[in-house]
Amino acid sequence: MAIDQNLKRKLTRDLSISLLLYTLPVLAIYLYFKLNNGIVSESHLVLPSFLEFTKPAFENIRTWGLIAFMLVLGVIEFAAGLYDDEWTGEERKIDIICFLAPKLLLPPVVAFFSLTVLPYLIPNLQNTLSWVPFWGAFFLIAVADDLTQYWYHRLHHQVPFLWRFHRTHHSAPYMGMAMLSRQNFIYTVFFSQIYLTATLTFLGLGLPALFVLVIKSFITLGAHSSIAWDKPFYKYRILHPIAWVLERLISTPATHHAHHADTSGDGIGHFKGNFGNMFFLWDVIFGTGLITRKFPKSYGMKSYKQEEWYAQFLWPIFKSKKEGSALAAGVLAVPITKKSNPVFPSTSYYEQVQS
Predict the structure, then answer these.
(1) What is the pLDDT of residues 306-326, one digit of tens each?
(2) What's the pLDDT score for residue 68?
(3) Which DSSP string corresponds to 220-233?
(4) Is residue 304 within 8 Å of 258, Cβ to Cβ?
């Protein structure tokens, strides 16, 4: 079947824009050295003096700090009753397993890639980018990491087969720290930006990669939290200019909660977009964003069958025994409506966009 012309034009446009965005940090670094006659005045291996005091804190955050912060924030959410007693049974089991298992199983995979695969594939390139200034490396990694994740995330919503690797994250009927790590393990293992960042670190950009990781983690934590920290920016007129910039630059609770809504019929939910993780800017650029400054009334999927933890965590290795589940054996696709998809007009919406 011929590719729809509107789809073809949109994909061509988005791909062209993405390639341009990927080259911007490289162009900026090139111009910097061109204007400085090729003189290397600083290295990212040494932090700029005004950031030196933050290094110990960032190093601790990388090892145990982020996990501690997640646990503290989760306790606050539960104490405030923000889960409405929904964290029970199968929900509790899948959230705990998805939180703990990757922290035990993923590090060996990444270590093997960094210590064995990369030295084999690019044996003479270790630390070859150590001359890049900190700001340039930070800019490069921030764009490369987050734009790659935007596309990884977007494709898992728009390709029916890929969706079932990501639907676990959207099955939770609540938002918060409890469901933040809720993902199919295969989705997590093939997280493309993990290996991209590992490669850039191997090339000598480890310190700025650490800073990007920490900043991105805090933004992602804040966007998933059931604590709506962005509401004051919408409530007080004096803060509206800040809100306008903030909600277009990074993911906020309002924009990301909309992505996890169980319907788009209320004009607030937008699971067909708002794909950005650290930067919401990608959604603005590609036209996949919706900003309402409002929060959905309910989350998850209306067709959710509360599948077994092993099916949600390890599909398709293990299948669900729940009748009617998209994760059951023999199910190839679960079309819900025949409404046209504006991004992929030749396809139907699938389970995740039931309204």
Answers:
(1) 899 999 999 999 999 988 888
(2) 77
(3) HHHHH-SS-TTHHH
(4) no
Helix ranges, the chain (H) = 5-35, 55-60, 66-79, 89-112, 118-121, 134-158, 160-170, 185-189, 192-200, 206-224, 231-235, 240-249, 253-259, 281-286, 309-314
Contacts of 332 (CB under 8 A, 6+ apart): none
Q: Is the pLDDT of residue 42 over 80?
A: no
Residue 325 neighbours by CB under 8 Å, 6+ apart: 305, 307, 311, 331
Reference 22, options 179, 123, 146; nearest CA is: 146
Backbone torsions φ then ψ of 47, nearest 5 degrees: -65, 145
DSSP string, 158-177: HSHHHHHHHHHHH--SS-SG
> pTM for this one?
0.85
SS (H, E, C) 311-340: HHHHCCCCCECCCCCCCECCCCCCEEEEEE
State residue 338 phi and psi, 5-degree precision: -110, 20
Domain ranges of the chain: 5-37+54-353
Buried b (16+ CB within 10 A) or exposed e, 175-192: bbbbbbbbbbbebbeebe
**For residue range 283-304, what is the model confidence (pLDDT) as tens digits?**
999 999 999 999 999 999 888 8
Q: Among all chains, which residue has been given the structure tokens 């050295």?
A: 33
Return the closest-CA partner of residue 293 out of 312, 268, 327.
268
Nearest C-alpha neighbor of 207 from the set 41, 58, 49, 39: 58
Q: What is the largest CA-CA distance in the chain?
A: 68
The C-alpha atoms of residue 101 and residue 104 are separated, in whole angstroms, by 5
Provide the token pair at 171: 């099955």
Both structure tokens of 11: 């994909």
The reported pLDDT for the residue numbered 192 is 72
